[in-house]
Design a protein that fits this description.
Blueprint: E1 6-7, H1 17-23, H2 33-50, E2 55-60, H3 63-72, E3 80-85, H4 88-99, E4 103-108, H5 117-126, E5 132-138, E6 140-141, E7 146-147, H6 150-160, E8 164-168, H7 180-183, E9 187-191, E10 202-207, H8 209-217, H9 227-234, H10 245-261, H11 263-283, E11 299-302, H12 309-320, E12 322-323, E13 325-326, E14 336-339, H13 346-362, H14 372-382
Parallel strand pairs: 1-12, 3-4, 3-5, 5-8, 8-9
Antiparallel strand pairs: 2-10, 6-7, 9-10, 11-14, 13-14
Helix pairs in contact: 1-10, 2-10, 5-6, 11-14, 12-13, 13-14
């Protein structure tokens, strides 16, 4: 019998059955009253999830498409930007900005470490002429499992007064408490295939009034990703271009499920799953790539020493049909990553850890004491 596929990667994430069933509906016209009613509910619930009264605009795009929209709508060629780079997606921001002719200054940290917010503070404080137009940060660095200190960084940006703060929340939105309005975040981008429990296909951009002011003078070229067009359409609960109608219908169902669970419960669940996973890995003597203080509730990266990460991934996939993510760029073959965001439960983590123990035993892992990983996870869950 074929095993049920179990996605334990940072994205796409598992999709609940009611959401999958919504995808199976016959498509409806995206210019119909029925679709507008669905879009109206989605727009309202997206604001709830984002903890904002700002516009949350829905794009037919991946998270990277939302990132690009977050650049081209608010900046001009030659603008000076500070970009935090401590993983693949911070580097992607830097590459994206360079592609559009921005003056990029990287503030870097070793992969697996968090960005030093003090370096940003010093740069911002020294900018008396207010030449820095934006500070760009990846909140949850998907490639390493590090959660950057967005709250502190945002305070430094607010003290600067002029710069926008642009945030990649692709694996933090829906997994981590992110109070957009209370913190005054300007541009926040994310994607449907992560904490939203929905298949890939939709990107989201939250835009503050301050960012809309910058939009008025931004000079980078834009057409399909012109957020002003999306803002006008959203006011009428429509899309400016043909959307993936069934993915929007699926998102409607997913957001209803998230509202039923409640934000506090969602964030508490992700914290519990993160801690259970990390404690289990420690009990199995598998080194964690990021320290507990900077760990992301969405992803845990593991750097095994006496057994190869790709062997672990291979056995987990072939024997148990459990997908784990590998390392990226220079970390390929050196780490594996466990996604525990979105539609993931205690049972999923226990199943994962039990399968991991069996995998380690098959690979002759000398440090294995059978059952200790599952027991460690259970201790966390029992509290």
């Amino acid at each position: 019998m074929d095993n049920k596929q179990m996605l334990m990667i940072p994205g796409p994430t598992p999709v609940p059955e009611p959401v999958l069933l919504a995808l199976a509906r016959h498509p409806i016209s995206h210019r119909s009253d029925e679709y507008s009613a669905i879009m109206g509910e989605v727009n309202h619930n997206l604001k709830w999830l984002h903890q904002t009264e700002n516009d949350v605009l829905v794009l037919t795009a991946s998270g990277t498409g939302a990132m690009e929209a977050g650049i081209i709508n608010f900046l001009s060629p030659g603008d000076r930007v500070l970009v935090g780079c401590n993983g693949k997606f911070g580097e992607r921001w830097a590459d994206l900005c360079a592609a559009f002719g921005l003056e990029v200054e990287k503030i870097t940290a070793q992969w697996g470490k968090s960005i030093d917010t003090e370096q940003f503070r010093a740069k911002l404080a020294a900018d008396t002429d207010k030449t820095i137009k934006a500070v760009i940060i990846t909140h949850s660095e998907t490639s390493t499992g590090v959660l950057n200190d967005l709250e502190t960084l945002n305070r430094h940006v607010k003290e600067h007064g002029k710069a926008l703060i642009i945030v990649d929340a692709v694996t933090s939105l829906g997994s981590v408490h992110l109070p957009i309005d209370r913190w005054g975040l300007d541009v926040v981008v994310s994607g449907s295939q992560k904490g939203y429990m929905t298949p890939p296909g939709l990107g989201f951009v939250s835009v503050s009034p301050k960012a809309w002011e910058a939009y008025q003078t931004a000079k980078l070229p834009r057409f399909y990703l012109d957020l002003g067009v999306y803002k006008k359409a959203a006011a009428n609960n429509i899309n400016p271009f043909t959307p993936p109608v069934n993915v929007v219908v699926a998102l409607q169902v997913a957001l209803r499920m998230m509202q039923a669970e409640g934000l506090d419960s969602i964030f508490a669940r992700h914290q519990r799953l993160m801690k259970a996973t990390r404690e289990a890995l420690k009990a199995l003597s598998l080194p964690l790539f990021a320290a507990d203080e900077v760990a992301s509730p969405a992803i845990t990266a593991v750097a095994p020493i006496s057994v190869e990460s790709e062997q672990i991934r291979s056995v987990m996939q072939q024997r148990f049909n459990i997908a784990l993510a590998g390392g990226q760029d220079h970390l390929k073959g050196k780490i594996f990553r466990i996604g525990h965001l979105g539609f993931v439960s205690d049972r999923d983590i226990l199943c994962l850890i039990a399968a991991l123990e069996a995998t380690l035993q098959e690979l002759g892992y000398e440090s294995l004491v059978p059952g200790v990983g599952v027991a460690a996870a259970l201790r966390v869950m029992s509290h």
